[in-house]
Amino acid sequence: MSKLKLNNVSYRYEKSSTNVLDNICMDFEAGKIYTIVGKSGAGKTTLLSVLSSLARPTGGEILLDDKDVSKIDRYKFRSKYVGVIFQNFNLLTHLTALENVELSMDISGKKFDRPKKEIALELLGKVGLNADEAKRRVLKLSGGQQQRVAIARALSYDPDIILADEPTGNLDGETQNEIISIFRMLADEGKCVIIVTHSPDVAAASDVKYELKNGKKKT
User: For 88-102, what is the mean pLDDT?
Assistant: First the structure.
């Protein structure tokens, strides 16, 4: 059964007559890694914005567990159902790794049955950061470590869907493989992982690869 489903989704910018996305149909299931590939300008980032509800489709529909996403409050959708990982991490650099994750938990509005600090430390440990690293300011961490913090932050309110925009684009090959392993672990735990990537290695490690060309899904 689809966790997230796109039915003939299109998107165009205001005052434009050209679709950036054109009648896209895709299925995303829990427990799998999906990659979205294509040349620059193919519509990958726009698709990610639509999937995360940062942008609403101008045509078609997106279903979450067979419910129309347009009927769900955007803030609730982004703070409950999806966790987004950005290429440039988008971490608050004046805070520690731990504080970044705790802040995300606060913003979500979710109630937790344990202290947030305890949960945040567990999440950071899960993605490979020890307690000492968790207490460092983000600028004192390497690129790979910052990406791990970004993943832990996306997991902080336990969303079912993880969306990642070029999550290995700024990383070396060894670190990229470690990040891929984390995504595989998350999929094995039942998360639906959707990754926009230019990396052939990341695409090869996914369960399903979708390719976009000129805003259309390539068949």
Answer: 95
Q: Rounded distance, CA 87 to CA 37, Å?
A: 15
133-152: average pLDDT: 96
CATH for 203: 3.40.50.300
Domain limits for position 127: 2-217
Tokens of 54: 């940062």
pTM above 0.90, yes or no: yes
Do the beta carbons of residue 146 and residue 167 sit within 8 Å?
no
Region of residue 149 (phi > 0: left; psi between -120 and 50: alpha; otherwise: beta): alpha
**pLDDT tens across 16-42, in order?**
889 999 999 999 999 999 999 999 889
Residues 42-45: contacts with CB within 8 Å, 24+ apart? 42/212, 42/213, 42/214, 42/215, 43/11, 43/212, 43/214, 43/215, 44/196, 44/212, 45/165, 45/196
Tokens linked to 215: 């805003």
